[in-house]
Design brief:
The complex is a heterodimer.
Chain A (H helix, E strand, L loop, with lengths): L6 H20 L11 H6 L6 H12 L2 H14 L6 H26 L4 H8 L3 H33 L3 H19 L2 H29 L1 H7 L3 H4 L6 H14 L4 H8 L4 H10 L1 H19 L13 H9 L2 H39 L5 H25 L2 H15 L3 H9 L5 H21 L6 E4 L5 E4 L2 H20 L26
Antiparallel strand pairs in A: 1-2
Helix pairs in contact in A: 1-8, 1-9, 1-17, 3-9, 3-13, 3-14, 4-7, 4-15, 5-12, 5-14, 5-15, 5-20, 6-7, 7-8, 7-17, 7-18, 7-19, 8-18, 9-10, 9-15, 9-17, 10-15, 13-17, 16-17, 17-18, 21-22
Chain B lengths: L14 H7 L16 H24 L14
Helix pairs in contact in B: 1-2
Chain lengths: 506, 75
Amino acid sequence: MIATIKASQLAVFAILFGGITVVGFAAARWRRGNLAELTEWGLGGRRFGTFVTWYLLGGDLYTAYTFVAVPALVFGKGAFGLFALPYTIIVFPVIYVVMPKLWQVSRNRGYVTASDFVKERFDSPLLAGLVGITGIVALIPYIALQIYGIEVSIAEMGIPVDASLTVAFVVLVIFTAVSGLRAPTLIAAIKDTLIWITVLVAVIYLPIRLGGYGFIFHHVPAAQLTLPPKLFNGYWTYALGSALFLFLYPHSITGTLSASSKRAVERNAAILPFYSILLGLIALLGYFALAAGIHPSKAYGANSIVPALFEKFFPGPFAGFAFAAISIGALVPAAIMSVSAANVFSRNIWHQYIRPQGSAREEANVAKVVSAIIKFGALAFILAVTTQYVLYFQTAGGAWILQTLPAVFLAVWFGWMDRWATIAGWAVGIGWTTYLLVEEGFKTSTYSFGFLGHLTIFLGLPPLIANLIVAFGGTALLRALGVRRQPSYGPAEFEVDRPAAVAPPS
Amino acid sequence: MVRRPNNWSLWLLLIPFVATLVPPFYNRVNPTIGGLPFFDWYLLVWVVVTAAILTTVYTLRRPRSGPGENRTGQA
């Protein structure tokens, strides 16, 4: 198919993209702080109130996965794709139970990453490093997925993909290095506005063009509207697994720790579901595309259906607006992800193992360089690897990061877990998950477990259960053998502010 | 003294898990609302109900006396 370039569409796209670039650079001056410090560059100085945290986290969590992959799944697999709704419903109780406590202890003790917490909680730089590496490895394909989302939109406009992506990325790299977390935070406000406008227009205007909701759902094959019973277990395990792993990702933790108070984090658990309505409406676009008879493109398969739907039905300039919304919507999480992965590398690997004597300034500089390397790595990944694999690696990343749940989430509530038992649990969980993924050739993240009567479920969950058994059983065993450990601090560290934050541990 | 929040109310947070992770509860097309299948609008309603449950738990767990903001710790 020969795509043609439409001037008005491209103009709207270019203006919006140029606008956010300016905002990205100007962000360095917003709530000015010393950007040579990692807490300022990589955490916005922990100064974001309830509302800023809300749109920052909204911009951070609702990614190209939401705008591209979820409707594609609904288009291809019908109601199964709607597992994203239970997922983004039950994730909020999970957040509420864990994240306010993690915020408080991080504020009190100067933590920037989950690994900082793990290191002191377990008195184990090794476990902290393992959690950190798991986070970085899991994030790279997730960042690649964001670039893929931009690529799909650019391709629909018919402009040269590789060159445009590279330009977008150079811009992203520079403004992230200059402004740190402040840039994606400010741009997140623009992103949310663009996305909401696009989606509301889509769910009102498209049905009018197509003949109403009744007509749309009449033209979707009936089998796609509900779930065949054989997919029940895949559906709920995917939703539960995703809800458990989302906030273990470094970018979710960065977004949370940048809040200014514990109360802001608690409130956000209650107001973030607002975005899940948006996700539900976006998921419906998969059904719209089915009813409208959209054909998946050769290059991008079902992932092209949302841009194709917009291209077919929206007037040119508004289609450009919508493509900019998707692209900027992918750029914001990509920036936060690279900042957070860089925070982890700088503090928990570089500072811990390579140059412990380095200054705070060096820590921030290393993070700036690493955030650029990670982004180019993800860009290389997307240009080199067959794109269908990006989506598979992304779900693999989720199954891996899930194995850090005992070390991070459970350690927030329980101080008695033993470091060696938790390390052993991590090793068992990661080992089993990797084995399953290799066996599936990274082509899917469900697995049919023979010992469970060939139950086909999300493959990260059984390894997590093995991980928990080893961590708890190992702790009990070591206790029985007389190995005891005093927790580094008491429960009060998780509940109340201390008068002044202590210096970050080194 | 550290004031312990009302942790009992956290049990309310299990409700959305039961309501959304058991597909037989909502795996059907009818009744539709404005053409939208039951499967879809049921889940959208649970987004709102979950937000309401979280708001309830948040309110129940705030300390009763004082402004509540843990700004100054136990001072």
